[in-house]
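Hi R.,

Here's the chain you asked about this morning:
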Amino acid sequence: MTPEALAGLIRGRARNRARFVVALAGPPGSGKSTLAAAVVAALGPGARVVPMDGFHFDDAVLEARGLRHRKGAPETFDAAGFVHLVRRLRAGGEVAIPVFDRTMELSRAAADVVAPGDRFLVVEGNWLLLDEAPWTDLAPLFDLTVALDVPEPELDRRLLDRWAHHGKTPAEARAWIDGNDMPNVRRVRQGSRPADVTVPWAG
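And here is the predicted structure, written out as tokens:
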């Protein structure tokens, strides 16, 4: 499904709705951010992306909990805080949102704002459909759920490119992917609820 087709589906389902909240989920490297931006562009004014990554726990918190090596796993996010945010977004009005800054590897609180006139919200993240508490509390909060389906070999290739871009050596990238990214990929694929719409890899 193209971004334009997905935008058309959203518009059709959102008739007479003041705010329509879409979940766009998928494993690391599946292209969630790229597709979310394209769908928002196709929807036009009144549409915006809301990333889940702003709810990463800080590295200092992860170190204290022995989870630094698993950054990106469900337990390394403030899931309850994220659920609260989505509830506020559904209620309308102005809502400040945190944004994850990958160059600094930390979240910036209230770094962006969802305005009252933002009608179409495309929430994107790995764990939006995870069938584990407390992530299951998100289920009734989305009006439409979309999942990206990309084969593991392609995800592996993209993740190698990603970490090279962020300065890891090939050996460092390989170790991080094998020890962290791929376990997350498999947890997304095996542990998520079915989406309303699945977008397959076009090859």
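One quick note: The first strand starts at residue 20 and ends at 25.

Cheers,
M.
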